[in-house]
Task: inverse folding
C-alpha cells in the first residue's frame, strides 16, 4: 500500500516484528527506538516515548523521510510488576507514562496531518491483561485498559474524518518482556491458553497489519491471544 508508517519501540520484540511486517508489505516504515537501533536496514529514529519533544522530533524525521505519517503503531511498553502493597508510586506512574500517556502523546502528534489527509490509522498495543486482569500488574493492566478508552474516544472524534483507532490485545508472546519467566510460570500461562503455546511476535504483527489495512474497523479491541481472554 506504500504508506508512511511509524512504529514505537520497534528495535526488538513485537515492535520490530510489526515494523518488518509493514516493510515487507511495501510500506515506508520509521522504526523508533529508545536505547539501541533495530537490526537490519529499517529507517530508525531515536525516540523515548515519555518525552514529548522526542516524539515530535521523531515525527519530524519520519515526515521528512517518508512524508506525513498515515499509520501509527503505539507499541512501546514496560512492566514493573509488584503486588499492590509493595508497588511504589514510581512503579505505577512509570508504567502508565510509558504504556498509556505515551500513546496519547504519539496520537496527538500524529492526528493533525491525518486530519489534513482525511485518512489515518492509529493502532494501540494493549494486552489481554487489560481485559482479564493479572495479580501483580495493577499498574500495567490499568494502563493497558486505559488504551481502550483512549481508542474508543478517538474513534468518536475521528471516524468522520477517515481516521480509525483500534486496540490490539496480545496474550503471552515470546519476547524479552516474558523471557525471564521460569518453566513453571510458563507452563501455568500456557495452561490458560486454549492454543496451548505463546504467540510469536510475527503473529501479533500480522494482526496489526490487518487492522491498519481495514477501513471499516474502528473502536475495536482485537484479542490475539490464542483464546486466553475469551469471555472478557
Ligand atoms: P519488549 O520488552 O521486548 O520490548 C519493549 C519495547 O518497548 C522495546 O523496544 C523498548 O525499547 C520499548 N520501550 C520501552 N520503554 C520505552 C520508552 N520510554 N520509549 C521508547 N521505547 C520504549 O516487549 P514486547 O515486544 O513484548 O512488548 C511490546 C508491546 O506489547 C508492549 O506494549 C507490551 O506491553 C505489549 N505486550 C506484550 C506481551 C508479551 O507477552 N510479550 C503481551 C501483551 C502485550 P528499549 O529496547 O530501548 O528498551
Result:
Amino acid at each position: 500500500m506504500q504508506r508512511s508508517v511509524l512504529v514505537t519501540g520497534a528495535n526488538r520484540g513485537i515492535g520490530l516484528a510489526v515494523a518488518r511486517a509493514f516493510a515487507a508489505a511495501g510500506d515506508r516504515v520509521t522504526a523508533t527506538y529508545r536505547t539501541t537501533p533495530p537490526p537490519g536496514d529499517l529507517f530508525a529514529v531515536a525516540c523515548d516515548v515519555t518525552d514529548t519533544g522526542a516524539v515530535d522530533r521523531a515525527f519530524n524525521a519520519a515526515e521528512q523521510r517518508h512524508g506525513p505519517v498515515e499509520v501509527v503503531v503505539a507499541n512501546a511498553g514496560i512492566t514493573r510488576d509488584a503486588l499492590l502493597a509493595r508497588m511504589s508510586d514510581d512503579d505505577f506512574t512509570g508504567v502508565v507514562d510509558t504504556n498509556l500517556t505515551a500513546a496519547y502523546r504519539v496520537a496527538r502528534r500524529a492526528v493533525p496531518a491525518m486530519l489534513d489527509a482525511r485518512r489515518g490509522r492509529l493502532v494501540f498495543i494493549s494486552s489481554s491483561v487489560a481485559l482479564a486482569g493479572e495479580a501483580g500488574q495493577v499498574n500495567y493492566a490499568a494502563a493497558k485498559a486505559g488504551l481502550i478508552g483512549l481508542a474508543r474516544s478517538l474513534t468518536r472524534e475521528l471516524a468522520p474524518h477517515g481516521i480509525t483507532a483500534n486496540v490490539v490485545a496480545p496474550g503471552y508472546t515470546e519476547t524479552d518482556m516474558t523471557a525471564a519467566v521460569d518453566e513453571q510460570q510458563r507452563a501455568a500461562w500456557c495452561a490458560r491458553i486454549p492454543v496451548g503455546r505463546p504467540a510469536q511476535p510475527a503473529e501479533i504483527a500480522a494482526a496489526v497489519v490487518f487492522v491498519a489495512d481495514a477501513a471499516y474497523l474502528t473502536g475495536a479491541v482485537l484479542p490475539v491471544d490464542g483464546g486466553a481472554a475469551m469471555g472478557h
